[in-house]
Amino acid sequence: MSEERTAHMLISGRVQGVGFRYFVYKTANQLGLNGWVRNLHNGKVEVFFEGEEKLVRQGVDHCKIGPSSARVDKVNVEWDYPEQSNGNFSIKY
Length: 93
Description:
Elements (H helix, E strand, L loop, with lengths): L3 E11 L5 H12 L2 E6 L5 E8 H13 L5 E10 L8 E3 L2
Helix pairs in contact: 1-2
């Protein structure tokens, strides 16, 4: 089993009003990742993934593409090691 990692992302482009948060939620649940996703007031989407490194990397790759209705222009990713997990994935409002 690989090491646990976290990825904190800020995603820019046409990422609000196109189902991006639900796409990320579905992806996280399919991969078994913990964390959250939320829209920001500046038009970006913020995502926090936590889990097995290989699966977190897959989640990040999915976010770089997004749903078919989105246009991802830029993804900033900060990698770290988890401190403690809440054990689920949620959409923050």
